[in-house]
Design a protein that fits this description.
With 236 residues, the protein is α+β, with helices and mostly antiparallel strands. The chain has a single domain, classed as Alpha-Beta Plaits (2-Layer Sandwich), CATH 3.30.70.100. It is built from nine helices and nine strands. Strands 8-5-7-6-4-1-3-2-9 form a nine-stranded antiparallel beta sheet. The chain starts with 16 loop residues before the first strand and ends with a strand. It comes from Dictyobacter alpinus. InterPro entries: ABM_dom (IPR007138), Dimeric_a/b-barrel (IPR011008).
Length: 236
């Protein structure tokens, strides 16, 4: 499993920009979608400033693909806008296969964990929507919980990130205002937290979800906002 600099370190000061793109596929279009999305990934891999590309698929209200692209910094990402934006490539080349327009988020890593002796077999992404007024408190609660041995020991590879919806407004602000970075935008306006979890077997996955610490984290967050869990079936 290829990962970027997130692996094995706490990433509170990482300059990498993580771009997460979700594409939901129409029923019966699985085979055609798989071929086209692989072609899109190959196009992305030629982008200057790209560090890594990972693609997962899963089933949640139909087939979906989740792309993770990491970039050297926000400058590299902004330079890639014309030719190498995952959402734009998906919208152009897979328009007739998509249920809805792709969603995309820009994120910075907050925490990472890796247990390299055990390769991951199961994975999931948890997206949490929280108001900008409450996100800092929810973020700190999850950071504290994820570092507890009861949870950490069950994970093979995991990371925690914070971000915003990738909108024309966000791009325009950072392009036209050199003094404003994505980090500053995230601090002021971010409303999304993302957890990536992976486990070496199904027992560890079920034990993780059953842990009281995780259950309490989930319940407290549901009082503040929304949680969407996306089980990931495989990596391309």
């Amino acid at each position: 499993m290829h990962v970027s600099k997130v692996e094995a370190v706490i990433l509170q000061h990482s300059s990498e920009l993580l771009v997460v793109t979700l594409a939901r596929i129409q029923s019966g279009k699985d085979i055609e979608a798989r071929g086209r999305i692989r072609s899109i990934v190959e196009t992305l891999r030629s982008a200057p400033g790209l560090i890594s590309t990972r693609m997962y698929s899963g089933q949640s209200n139909g087939l979906f693909y989740l792309l993770f692209t990491t970039w050297d910094d926000e400058e590299s990402w902004l330079k890639a806008q014309e030719r190498h934006t995952p959402r734009q490539l998906l919208s152009v080349h897979m328009k007739d296969l998509l249920m809805v327009p792709p969603e995309q988020w820009l994120m910075y890593y907050l925490w990472g964990y890796s247990k390299p002796t055990q390769p991951p077999q199961f994975a999931a992404v948890q997206l949490m929507g929280v108001t900008p007024q409450r996100i800092q408190q929810v973020q700190q609660t999850w950071l504290t919980g994820l570092q507890q041995p009861e949870l950490q020991s069950l994970l093979t590879f995991a990371f925690f990130a914070r971000g915003i919806n990738d909108t024309p407004t966000a791009t325009r602000i950072t392009t036209t205002s050199p003094s404003t970075s994505y980090r500053e935008l995230f601090s002021q306006r971010s409303s999304l937290l993302l957890c990536f979890f992976s486990w070496s077997d199904e027992i560890e996955r079920e034990d993780f979800y059953a842990q009281r610490i995780y259950q309490n984290l989930k319940k407290s967050t549901e009082k503040e906002g929304t949680i969407m869990l996306l089980p990931l079936e495989n990596q391309q």
